[in-house]
Structure formats: structure tokens, C-alpha cells
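Practice problem: predict the structure.
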Amino acid sequence: MQTNLAEQFKNTPLGLEADAILRSCVHCGFCTATCPTYQIQSDELDGPRGRIYLIKQVLEGQPATAKTQLHLDRCLTCRSCESTCPSGVEYGHLVDIGRAVVEQQVGRTWREKLLRGTLRAIIPHRQRFATLLKLGRLFSPLLPAALQRKMPAVQDAGLWPAVRHARKMLVLQGCAQPAATPLTNAAAARVLDKLGVSLLEISTAGCCGALSHHLNAEHEAQDFARRNIDAWWPYIMAGAEALVMTASGCGVMVKDYGHLLRNDPDYAEKAERVSALTRDLVEVLLQEDLSSLTLLQHEPIAVHAPCTLQHGQKLSGSLEQLMRRAGFTLTSVPDAHLCCGSAGTYSILQPTLSQQLLQQKLTALNSGQPSLIVTANVGCQLHLASQSAIPVQHWITLFDGAGN
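Answer:
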């Protein structure tokens, strides 16, 4: 694709990156076939190729409009298009650039600013989110039915094993997951303990920064990343062999820290090291001997592979491979590459499209009549569970003999 960027973007880090991505696109259109929003909207501008053209126009000097912003907002950033693209277009990075530039030009209504500001003020902050969740559960009978369905069930996390192994890995505690699904990290710690690995939660680490990043609060996202790097660094220097991500959405973000902080002279090198050490929990268990585990058998099982696992981290098929290796029977899930509609805050900011995608995903997951649905991301887990007639849980709980 030929480009002619406006002077304000030429020879800037943002412009150079965007230009390289744009030039790699051959506008073949393969991406539209696997784009969830294009499947629903049947609008070229609600597919990757159309959005790329919109971003190109803005970077070449054409004024952005509210319509431009709407089509970029409707993108899930699921990155299914990246898995399909024969040219290796880094669409995820490009749409981040495009959204930020368009928002600078178009702005937001006061309602949008209030909603986005509230999300950024609560969800990434562990204690604030936990407090709000407690209040929601307390007053659940008074809430609308739609909100009641979104309320996660209370979980008993069980005991966290004592540190007793020479092999040590770090796990991201995160922001929403400790309150919403505390069983996940605890189950991961027990499973790894049986495999001879002590899993450490570092309390001073928190939100990975993904929410801020995707809401165009780039400096805030970078601050979250720096805080996490500072929290983890002494343990990395002491020999921690991996940073384990039990939420694939966090995993794709932390694996991108090297890119996020590439222009920070104080953190660029550390960020690259952190990204290189980051492993999804699926990757970790695929490298281990699982014969010592007592597995909780549920058959058959439908696997929901989050977009952040299969497209963002390029680990398509890895969760299914692990589950089959462990002896589980899996159902066939049609269109497994399509997003469930959770996508971070997308279910809140784009509720209509999100619910359409959710119903499509549940139909696909239920088509094989499973007894259970498992997934690898907290947001997807809660989103699916809000409408699912059968249980939805994180896959690690099936590997945890003490799980429930």
C-alpha cells in the first residue's frame, strides 16, 4: 500500500511505525472473512481493511470525524485478522495508533468521557474493584436482571501452597481477577507446586495496563507497566524462571511491554526482558510432566480459546492440545476463531454488538452438548457465564485436585 503521510506525522516514531504497517498491507481482503464485526455489520468500514483505510486517510491529513471514530471503536482488537493476514500486517498496533490520533482530533462527549474515566478509575485498581464487587453482591437483588447476570459467583480459592521449591515462577495478581475469580491463581499455584515449582504473587504488582492502553490512556498504561517491572525485577534478578499469566488478556499485554516502553531509556531493556520471560500458563504446562496430577474429569468439554490466546499470543490450538494430552474429551466448536464479545471493556462500551457476539459464541460452544465450558481469560469467563446455561470456568481448575 502506498502512503503519503501528513507532515505532522512524517519522521515521528508514531508516523514511522504506522507507515511501515500500512505499507505491509496489500489490501487483499482476507481479513474481512475472519473479522467478527464485519460478519455482523456487513460494512467494509467495520472490517480490518476498511479501518486500515480510515487510519491511512487520517494520517495523510484528512480530518477525522465521529464516523471514523465509531468504526474504530467498534473494533474488538481481537486480532483475528492478524492470524489470517498473509502479509503479516500488525493491525493491533496500527489500530491503537489510529484510535489515539482520531481521539485527539474528534474528542469525546462528556458521557463517553465519564464512562471511560470511571472504568479507568475503578477496574485497574484491585481494592476499588473488590469493594465495588462486594457492594454489587450485597445489593444484587435490587439490581436489574442484566447486571445480576454479570455478577460472578463467590469462589473459595483454597490454600496457597508454601514456597518450598528451588524452581520459582512469578504470577500476575492482576486487578479484577483476585476479586472476581480468586480460585484461578490459587489453583495454578497448587498445580505448579505438585510439579515442583513455587508460584509467587508479588503484591506490589497489579493491573497489566491493558485497559488503560485500549482506552487511549497510553501514559497511564506505561506507568502500570513500569510499576510491575519494578515489582518483579528483584525476583527476576534472583532467578525466577518465568512470569506466568493465568489471564491471556494480561499475557498478551505483558508480552508487549517491550514495544510499549521501547522509547523509555530507563525501562526499554528491562521491558524486553520481562516480555521474553512471560509465558501463558498453557505454555508452562505444555513443557511439564503432568503424570503426578489428579485431574477433575468432566466430559465432554467445550474449549473457548480467547482471542488474546490464539491471535494475540499466537498460541492457537495450544489449550486444546494440553487438554487432550491430559485425557479430556473435547467437543468440536464451530468458528472457534471468532470473538465472544468480551474484549476488555468492549462489553460495556459496545453492548449491542457484544451481546450478538456472545449469543453466537454460546451457540457454537453448546453445539457439541458439553457438560462444561473452559476458557483461559477472566473477562471471557465472566462474559460467557453471564448468559451460559452450563458452567464456565478457567481450565486450570480441572488440573487442580483441590479445585471446585
